[in-house]
């Protein structure tokens, strides 16, 4: 932060009678006139450039401004000349428009800098500064005037006036808040919504809902999903494109060898070594999309919570505090995987009203 | 421009309109006082201007984007000219962002410039705030402008967050999902807040259009008002200046607003604008077409937020799992702590610092000469320590990349990070404090013994010494701008003595302790023998001393 290139020309007097740079009342008429700007007049703090530098500066600045002029024209020409329709043409247009705009702006900037540096004088003007505070007299005048005005208005003497006015303002102040109510949905039992997913609903025909592959929408025949270590991203049949449903219902489906599964996994909810977990991370809800076959670890790319898929998707690392909930699955009579019910506990990030849903399920003798 | 008398030689085309305006507005009086307003010069005073000009570029490019962007989550089938996504279902917002990129001339440029300008805007604000902090320019009378600044920084983060979410691509959706996950974790109000923000369950159909009005109307409107207030206060209070020859607490030394500062500011605006245009042309940013439309079921690998959100990301990653259930309610501390605590420490710390410092030093004077950072070692150490804390969280927000680049296990980057977050700021504090004192000592040496001249002299008994000469006048003046940091009178009362009224009781004693540690003169410039390094130093010392007295009333 050294700052040693300021050669300050102090006016001879320590306290100049007239602060340089501010016009004296008498001289104001000539402020823009001859006095400071005309060459040769010796004003302290205004060091004129010598004519040779200024001449050179003028040439350079003029060159810069001319470049700006030409690139400005180039910009307009590029706009007309390069149509856009897709990646390639948009790229070309972008370079032409952006390049000419950049050149125009930067050379305008350079011209201005040259103007300041080589043509304008070097300034070291000194101006006085005053305390921010008004003087005592002014303050007390304002204070008295304020009180006098308040008294004149009657607001101090007439409590009825004052109180009714304040009371009147209160509901009006609340009105905008009231108006915000319909930002939210009409129901108020929000937490209840968070406890259910579409897996809990039967299909229109009253059957269990099928698991289908995300993207293709194909139902999954258990017999075909048979190579251990296999993994699929799965969505509910009928809700393949419903983002609201998917935000809670998307699954990660993994095929194990039966002996690999540990006690954390509810075997009644698996089918032939196939396990379904919620894909929504219990930390703050990113899809836990990465799977490492050798360790059976599901990894959330957002903050690296790591879940052991062989052991009920319990947390082995990272900020997530709860396992990924497991979905009960089975096969229907055609051999396709279906959900036999909803998750036993809410999926995704924790919320205030959630409570220890896992403990509640365990208390009832179930498996979370 | 006012009172253009007949004798004046102002040319008619200027004189005519200006007297027309002056007759109606009396603008001449204002201009008379302000045309030649003096602005001090220092490179670091330009940092705030980067933010200002980036904001103007944001307004210009953002307005262009609004002409084409459709803030709607309605489901459409894409049928534009980007082949990779033809026939894909997506939201209208995402489709219109693709259209801006590939079917509107200059659209891609404006999008990329808008995004780069946003990054520069926040970066400009941050370095500007650091400049103000380390030079103590937030001190009286500028505390209010400091608070406005902190508020603007907070709003800018919100503005960036809402903007980032608008294109509704897979990457922006991941950011939105995390925002939702954090919001819903808030005790008591979390579910209400998210259901109201999203108009129901996440993601709903409302959030893009709501973020849109926040992003293009509400937050920029408030920012514009705050920026105006910031500028007006700066104008009224005048800029601080660095210590130097002829610069005192009661003057401003520099160049006049008209014409020099005006031209410089114009040049600087064009420069900022030009650099943003350059980045927008050649620096691909947020290529949303590569990410695909948003779905809560997927995430693109290596998702990263914009850098100014990186520290929150880092905090979320470092936090160990911790969740408490009491009486049927859930406190997800592994979300709440990282989301609220670092941000809270930094923003609250920034906002309160001027007032805490005043409380500790008892200093109620006006300050217009900036401190050199070394001359207030505790403040500088606190600042560097905070930067270390922030910077570390920021880096740890990319711990997967660190782990990948340096081939360390991901888990170890986290374990090491958890320790460093507590240790590194302390180390930074101690090191900075020492460095400041070291620099002060070398300043004292320059004043006391002069600077090395490069001339070697041989003494009669054979020893070689380097001849020291007095420092250049301007350097000396710059160094002598140092002032002792005030200590509350009576803070050094001996144990057993009776401290003055404000310093009794536990809080008073703490205050006295802090005041003694924070303030005072640690390395006096004139160590009894300074000031005699050269002949004419006497005069300067005298001037400096009398100024000091006038400041300590
Ligand atoms: C003041 C600070 C502002 C910040 C930090 C900011 C930031 C952002 C960011 C990061 C994006 C995503 C851009 C992308 O697609 O890559 C964005 C999008 C957008 N912004 Fe801003 N912005 C600001 C001001 C404004 C203003 C003042 C307007 C309008 C008057 C505006 C209009 C828009 C629009 C329409 C979009 C969506 C278009 C698109 O993404 O292609 N912004 N903003
Ligand atoms: S959302 Fe999965 S770790 Fe944070």
Model description:
The complex is a heterodimer of chains A (368) and B (553). Chain A is an alpha+beta fold. Chain A is built from 8 helices and 14 strands. In chain A, the strands form 4 sheets. Chain A has a 5-stranded antiparallel sheet. A 4-stranded antiparallel sheet of chain A has the order 8-9-10-11, with no helix packed on it. A two-stranded antiparallel sheet of chain A has the order 1-2. In chain A, α2 runs antiparallel to α3 (87-119). The longest helix of chain A has 33 residues, at 87-119. The two termini of chain A are 62 Å apart. Chain B has helices at 12-25, 27-34, 47-66, 92-103, 107-134, 143-165, 170-184, 190-197, 207-237, 257-282, 310-318, 333-361, 377-396, 399-406, 410-449, 473-480, 505-518, 537-551; strands spanning 38-39, 75-77, 89-91, 251-256, 324-326, 329-331, 451-458, 464-469. Chain B is globular, with a radius of gyration of 29 Å. The two termini of chain B are 41 Å apart. Bound molecules: protoporphyrin IX containing FE (HEM) and FE2/S2 (inorganic) cluster (FES).
Essential attributes:
A: 368 residues, 5-stranded antiparallel β-sheet, 4-stranded antiparallel β-sheet, 34% helix, 13% strand, B: 553 residues, mainly alpha, two-stranded antiparallel sheet, 18 helices, 8 strands, globular, disordered N terminus
